[in-house]
Amino acid sequence: MAMYLMDQTDAVSGHTQKGIEFLERFGQFIKERATIEEEYAQKLRNLVKKSKNKKNDEEECKVYSYMSAFYSILSELDSLAAQHEVVGEKMKKEIVPTILEKSQVLRAGRKKHIQELQALNTSFNEQVENMAKLEKTYGKAFKDAQIAHVKYEKADKNYELSRLDVDRAKNNVHQKNQICEQAKQSYAHGLESANQAQHNYYNQSLPNLLEEMRKLDMSRIETTKSAMLESVNAERSVSSIVQRCYSDMESAISTINPEKDTLVVVEQHRSGYALPADFRFNDLGCPHRWLPNLWWMEQL
């Protein structure tokens, strides 16, 4: 059971580590997302600037509705770029630092829990190892006492031995019995301590520590949830402005008047001169009337 629970604490520890790594990975995702927003905003601004780089556009905007609408779209695109910058800035300056700060707190908390878990395991294992050592000592003392008894019984029945040798064997039995009893008491005390340590470990210390680890993981998940919501809210906060930009674009486009624009061209390029006279027909008459006078044809 001890090894099973030890494996489970290792699994819990591994889970908390992966959880913190996921939070940090999400923080990196938000950081890269913010960079994309800022880069997109800059590209929009560059496009707007490039598209306005026409000398005659200002005059044509006053004349042609399609040109005026186009410049209105460019203006709104510039506003859209600003909103993407706002989103990127909120993500980079508000969400990412919060995640990094929380991640450091979580790592410190997890490290503390791991150290406490290691201390608990070390203390408990020392109690168990001490009990096992005392049990082994008791077992050896018990065998020594048994051997002493056997030797005494043999000596007591051996009439060839002196009374002094028998008394020595008897005293040895008494001595070994005392050592065995002391070892037994030490083992009993060690067993009681180990059982108490085991009870405290599995019913109080370990559950309390695991609960602290669970609370820390809950805090990590809450931070992850909050960061996700903040990333959505960063976009939602500018959605009304974005929609207004699109509405203004549509309004500008609706002002385009093809008939008016083409009539402007007509008015601009009208010459003001009267219509030219019709071309007159040049009649050469009958071909044979001129034959006698065509002396040059005789030279052919």
Brief account:
With 300 residues, this protein is an all-alpha fold. The chain is 84% helix and 0% strand.
Secondary-structure blueprint of this entry?
Elements: H1 2-51, H2 57-63, H3 65-157, H4 163-236, H5 239-254, H6 258-268
Domain F-BAR: 1-261
Keywords: Coiled coil
Pfam families: FCH
Notes on the structure:
- The protein is 84% helix and 0% strand.
- The protein has six helices and no strands.
- The longest helix is centred in the middle third of the chain and has 93 residues, at 65-157.
- With 300 residues, it is an all-alpha fold.
- It has helices at residues 2-51, 57-63, 65-157, 163-236, 239-254, 258-268.
- Residues 114-186 form a coiled coil.
- Keywords: Coiled coil.
Question: What's the alpha carbon Rg, rounded to whole Å?
Answer: 51 Å
Number of helices: 6
Derived structural class = mainly alpha
The number of strands is: 0
Largest sheet, in brief, is:
none
Q: Low-confidence runs (pLDDT<50, min 5 residues)?
A: none
Distance between the termini: 134 Å
The topology string of helices and strands comes to HHHHHH
Overall outline: rod-shaped
Helix content: over 70%
Average pLDDT, all residues: 89
What portion of the residues fall into strands of 2 or more residues? under 5%
